[in-house]
Amino acid sequence: MFLAVFYFFIATNTQTGWLFLLSAFLLGLLVFSWAVGRRSCEELSLTYRWLSEPQKGHPFRIEIRLKNEGSSAKRELRVDCPTPPWASEEQDFSWAIPVLQPGQIATTSFQLTP
Question: 44-112: which CATH architecture?
Answer without folding.
Answer: Sandwich (2.60)
